[in-house]
Design brief:
The protein is of the alpha/beta class. Helix content is 22%, strand content 21%. Strands 1, 4, 5, 6, 9, 10, 11, 12 and 13 form a nine-stranded mixed β-sheet that branches. The protein has a two-stranded antiparallel sheet with strand order 2-3. Bound molecules: cytidine-5'-monophosphate. Cytidine-5'-monophosphate (C5P) binds next to helix 3 and strand 9. Pathway: Cofactor biosynthesis; coenzyme A biosynthesis; CoA from (R)-pantothenate: step 2/5; Cofactor biosynthesis; coenzyme A biosynthesis; CoA from (R)-pantothenate: step 3/5.
Length: 283
C-alpha cells in the first residue's frame, strides 16, 4: 500500500546518462544506469503523480504507467524538458521537476558525419584531426573563446598518459604548445547546458529537485551546488560507487540544513523520497 501523497501532481523528470556523439558509431557517455531515476519515476507514479520521464539511453524497462520520452544527448534532453514546460505553461502547469540524469558535462565540439578513420584520425569530411604535430587541429581551433578548461587540449601534453587534469600541482599541465605523440587523436569538447539550472531559472519554474554524486566532501559540494543551481532541494548520493548499484545512501540538503537517510535499496529510497516530495510540494 502506497499513500497517494502525490495524487494528481505533475512531475517532470530526467534520468539515465546522456550520449554525446563523436561520429556515427562512437560517443561519450557515463556509467549511470538510470536505476535511481526510474525507481523514483515509478515511486512517484505509485504515490499518485502523473509522471513524464525524459531518459537518456539505459538498459532498463520503461517504468509502468509513466509517460516516457527517450533522448540521447544533453541538448536533446534540454530541448525536450523545455518543450514540456512550454506546453504546460499553456495548459496545466508542472508541479515538480526532478533532475536525476547524469548529464554529460562536455560534448564533442564537432560531430564527424562519417566514421573517423584510424589511419589518419580524420573524418572523411576532415572535421576532426589527429594531433600528429600538435598544430593543425581544425577541430579544436574554434573552441569557445575564453574557454579556460583543458578538455580538448590534451594533445599538447608531452608524452603524458592522462589528460584529465588530475596531475598534482606543479606537474606539467596541458597547454596548447608542445610536442604530441604521432598516435594521438585530439577531440575538442564544448560544455553542455545545465538542464536543472535552466529549469530553475525560468519565471514559471516548478519545485526543482537535483541529485548530486560526488567522490569527496559530499556535504560541502552538495550544499554549495543547491545554492549555485538555485533549487530548494538537492539529494546527494553518498559513496563513490553508486552508479549501477542497487543500493544507495542519500543525503537531503535544503535551506534548513542536511539530513542523511538510512542506507537502502534504490526502490525503497525512491518510495521514501516520493512521500517526502508529497510533504514538500505546495498543496
Ligand atoms: O553539477 P552536477 O552535474 O553535479 O549537478 C547534478 C545535478 O544537476 C543533477 O540533478 C543533474 O541531473 C543536473 N544536471 C543537469 N544538467 C547538466 C548537469 C547536471 O540537469 N548539464
Amino acid at each position: 500500500f502506497t499513500p497517494k501523497t502525490l495524487q494528481g501532481k505533475r512531475i517532470l523528470m530526467t534520468a539515465g546518462p546522456t550520449y554525446e556523439a563523436i561520429d556515427p558509431v562512437r560517443g561519450i557517455t557515463n556509467l549511470s544506469s538510470g536505476k535511481m531515476g526510474y525507481a523514483l519515476a515509478q515511486a512517484c507514479r505509485q504515490a499518485g503523480a502523473l509522471v513524464t520521464l525524459v531518459s537518456g539511453p539505459t538498459a532498463l524497462p520503461r517504468p509502468y504507467g509513466v509517460r516516457f520520452l527517450p533522448v540521447q544527448s544533453a541538448q536533446q534532453m534540454l530541448d525536450t524538458v523545455m518543450a514540456e514546460l512550454d506546453m504546460a505553461a499553456s495548459t496545466i502547469s508542472i508541479d515538480c521537476f526532478i533532475g536525476v540524469a547524469a548529464v554529460a558535462d562536455w560534448r564533442p565540439l564537432q560531430v564527424a558525419s562519417q566514421k573517423i578513420k584510424k589511419e589518419r584520425g580524420l573524418a572523411q569530411d576532415g572535421t576532426i584531426l589527429t594531433g600528429a604535430d600538435g598544430t593543425s587541429h581544425a577541430g579544436t581551433g574554434t573552441a569557445g573563446a575564453g574557454d579556460t578548461s583543458y578538455a580538448g587540449m590534451g594533445s599538447a601534453r608531452t608524452g603524458g598518459t592522462s589528460h584529465t587534469g588530475t596531475a598534482p600541482a606543479g606537474a606539467d599541465r596541458p597547454s596548447r604548445t608542445g610536442t604530441v605523440p604521432a598516435d594521438t587523436l585530439t577531440l575538442a569538447l564544448t560544455q553542455n547546458p545545465d538542464i536543472l539550472a535552466s529549469v530553475a531559472r525560468r519565471p514559471d519554474a516548478p519545485y526543482c529537485v537535483g541529485f548530486a554524486a560526488e567522490s569527496e566532501d559530499l556535504l560541502h559540494h552538495a550544499t554549495e551546488k543547491r545554492i549555485r543551481k538555485g533549487i530548494p532541494l538537492l539529494v546527494g548520493n553518498l559513496g563513490p560507487a553508486t552508479f549501477g548499484q542497487d543500493d544507495n545512501t542519500l543525503l537531503l540538503v535544503d535551506e534548513h540544513g542536511t539530513r542523511t537517510l538510512p542506507a537502502g535499496s534504490k526502490t525503497a529510497l525512491a518510495r521514501w523520497l516520493a512521500q517526502e516530495l508529497g510533504r514538500r510540494l505546495p498543496a
